[in-house]
Write a structure and sequence with these properties.
The chain has two domains: 116 residues, Aspartate Aminotransferase, domain 1; 221 residues, Aspartate Aminotransferase, domain 2 (3-Layer(aba) Sandwich). The protein has 13 helices and twelve strands. Bound molecules: 4'-deoxy-4'-aminopyridoxal-5'-phosphate. Aminotransferase that catalyzes the conversion of aromatic amino acids and 2-oxoglutarate into corresponding aromatic oxo acids and L-glutamate.
């Protein structure tokens, strides 16, 4: 921070110390953007039409996005009050953390995981407790349970985990839930749920029946391709979601966003067909990388994790020079989103060279 950036008003020191949320590098015109786990397919005409039909934007949107909540409630077999919609699941994460944790409280999550978690915990004034991923890049749930103290207020489980792609199995999850206090809020972040093909993976609304302290978070950003419109949803008990409603910034889900989400649910078969294409592309790319000699974890999401270690920054630079914008997490590895077929072919050409140069 330069001298002139020093704030002259009294701000919270822990907030000033926070790095701003970093997006991937803006892509040059002809580059492939594989840094934000976005959906590479163009929006569907029916979804565009639904957004365009939403013209009464001189009026505020419905504050609780009731029409969308009703559709989601029907889809997941829950009550519409058990669905809370927000401007992206990251907003819901913030609301839920704020609802449960404040100064002096602890929030546990696995690390490395979604890079927004540390900032959201700091904004709440709470303390992050990071439990290292297992050597196979998955969550170490027994270690996470062992890290719980009487100050723990939230545990975040990310399955599939961003950025490693590893899932938590249903067995691991249930063992965790019965081991932890029933008054402890557990957030299951399933931003990539629709890309999961492993039948052993944890998932979905049926879990809510057994665990009133669980909230499941999902999003329209990834599988449904609405990242720019900002719609996510939380499924959970009414009491917990009511607390999240109280910490929400009011009216942050626009009518256009709700309309797009409702149109996407109507177009689900086609959208899930696209997900199937991306899953096949993911698995084919994983196989090709493995054949090149990469030792990378199997991914159940729409990205792959290249363990480039100390060479991470240099490898990301090489990929960028070839027109592939990826997300480096030095000194651990690089996360590459599954994008266009052409992008994946190009990736394999460059990774074949990079692995030759690795020590
Ligand atoms: N959770 C995870 C694990 C993510 O990777 C992301 C997006 N990168 C989100 C939540 C937030 O997604 P959105 O706010 O777009 O719903």
């Amino acid at each position: 921070m330069s001298q002139s950036d020093q704030p002259s008003v009294r701000l919270r020191p822990e907030i000033i110390a926070l790095p701003a949320y970093k997006q991937g590098k803006p892509a040059q015109a002809d580059a492939f953007k594989l840094s934000s786990n976005e959906n590479p397919f163009d929006p569907m005409p029916g979804v565009i039409a639904a957004v365009q039909a939403e013209t009464a934007f001189n009026r505020y949107p419905d504050a609780s996005a009731l029409a969308l909540r009703e559709q989601l409630a029907a889809k997941f077999g829950v009550d519409s009050e058990q669905v809370h919609v927000g401007s992206g699941s990251v907003a819901l994460l913030a609301q839920l953390i704020l609802a449960a944790a404040g100064p002096g409280d602890e929030v546990i999550y696995s690390w490395r995981s979604f890079e927004a978690y540390p900032g959201l915990v700091a904004v709440a004034g709470a303390t992050s407790v990071r439990v290292p991923n297992r050597a196979d890049h998955g969550h170490d749930l027994p270690a996470m349970a062992a890290a719980i103290t009487d100050r723990t207020r939230v545990v975040i489980i990310c399955s599939p985990n961003n950025p490693t792609g590893a899932i938590v199995t249903a067995d691991e999850f249930h063992a965790f839930m019965v081991a932890v206090p029933t008054d402890l809020l557990v957030l299951l972040d399933e931003a990539y749920a629709e890309f999961v093909t492993d039948a052993d993976a944890v998932g979905g609304s049926p879990l809510l029946v057994g665990y009133p302290n669980l909230v499941v978070l999902r999003t329209f950003s990834k599988a449904y391709g609405l990242a720019g419109l900002r719609v996510g949803y939380a499924l959970g008990s009414v009491a917990v979601l009511n607390a999240a409603r109280s910490t929400a910034i009011p009216l942050s889900v626009t009518g256009q966003a709700s309309a797009a989400a409702i149109a996407s649910l109507a177009a689900e078969p086609e959208l899930l067909g696209r997900v199937g294409v991306l899953v096949a592309r993911r698995d084919a790319t994983w196989r090709a990388l493995t054949l090149q000699g990469w030792n990378l974890p199997a991914s159940q999401a729409n990205f792959l994790w290249l363990p480039t270690g100390d060479e991470t920054a240099a490898a990301a630079e090489t990929l960028a020079d070839a027109g592939l914008i990826v997300r480096p997490f030095a000194p651990e590895g690089i996360r590459v989103s599954i994008g266009e077929d052409e992008a994946m072919q190009k990736l394999l050409t460059v990774t074949a060279d990079i692995i030759e140069s690795l020590p």
